[in-house]
Amino acid sequence: MEIVETKNIPNLIVFSETLQALAENDRDIIVVTSDSRGSGKLVPFGEKYPDQIVEVGIAEQNLVGLSAGMASMGKKVFAVSPACFLTARSLEQIKNDVAYSDNPVKLIGISAGVSYGALGSTHHSLHDFAALRAIHNVTVVAPCDNFETTEAIKAAAKADHPIYIRFGKKGLPTLNRSHDPVFNLGKGRVIRKGADLTFVGTGETVWPCVEAAKLLSENHGIEACVISMHTVKPLDDKLMLGTASNGAPIITVEEHSVHGGLGEAIASLLFQNSCRNKFKIIGLPDEYTITGSQLEIFDHYGITDKDLADVAKEMVADV
């Protein structure tokens, strides 16, 4: 069985519930928000732990600077803000106050990718992987489901280094855990096994990869491996090189620009290790991004089960 169905709870709600559970016995956990208590699903946290939440208003640079200061004093700080603003307006503070100063702030980018939908390009975060991959000393994570979200927040609370975790808004099923039941930062998870082709997704794109793999198996006899590369940085080199060793095509899928994200990270790794797999990056191209809901944008740019299956079928046929 490929999928374990759940209530399709948004990862943000699981993030908030996990953080509340951790804060119950740990007064060092502090949440800092930039007018994002509601959108970050943190109203219940604030009601339970009013002394452990700080609201700075729409001032993302102050949010990161304040968080870095508290982290330097031993607090376990979760800085929560829309991903588009957190990783753009306050990039200087992330670079200098957090990463280069080695303050273990947990940067939480909410409503990431194109989750804000019709609010348009100003509210899309299609740059965050690229920007943070270029800054030393920041782990970059995008959980694909509720299980990975819970484990990522637990790991972040224990981490002694900076970490960025991005969340979308959509309700998600819990994906198959039979192959890789353990979550570790920096280690991808095999969601589905297959030798004909590999999909490598991150965050909310893993689900359409799984559905595409099911279509390929049921309709074309093509068995596709699906990997959740939840940690974009550092990349799981061992898993990727092992996966590529069979020579089968590889398709990366991300809710991010095709420039500077997961796909280019994997392409660089494979090319530098003389891998010759057919390779395709699927994400958002370098053009004016259309306006619409997340699903409409995914459909336009081919991030759907049918579109992914069609691309995969052509790549397998050309091998």
What is the element layout, followed by pairings?
Layout lengths: L2 E8 H13 L5 E5 L9 H6 L4 E3 L4 H13 L3 E7 H4 L4 H9 L6 E5 L17 H6 L5 E3 L4 H13 L4 E4 L4 E5 L13 E4 L4 E5 L4 H15 L3 E5 L2 E3 L3 H8 L5 E8 L4 H11 L6 E6 L9 H7 L4 H13 L2
Parallel strand pairs: 2-3, 2-4, 4-5, 5-7, 6-7, 10-11, 10-13, 13-14
Antiparallel strand pairs: 1-8, 6-12, 9-11
Molecular structure report:
The longest helix has 15 residues, at 206-220. This protein starts with a strand and ends with a helix. Helix 1 packs parallel to helix 7 (146-158) and helix 3 runs parallel beside helix 5. It has 2 domains: 3-171, Rossmann fold; 174-317, Rossmann fold (3-Layer(aba) Sandwich), CATH 3.40.50. The chain has 12 helices and 14 strands. With 319 residues, it is α/β, with parallel strands linked by helices. Residues 1-5 have low confidence and may be disordered. It has a 7-stranded mixed beta sheet, with helices on both faces. Strands 9-11-10-13-14 form a 5-stranded mixed beta sheet, sandwiched between helices. A two-stranded antiparallel sheet has the order 1-8.
Offer a few descriptive terms.
319 residues; alpha/beta; Rossmann fold; 2 domains; seven-stranded mixed beta sheet; 14 strands; 37% helix; disordered N terminus
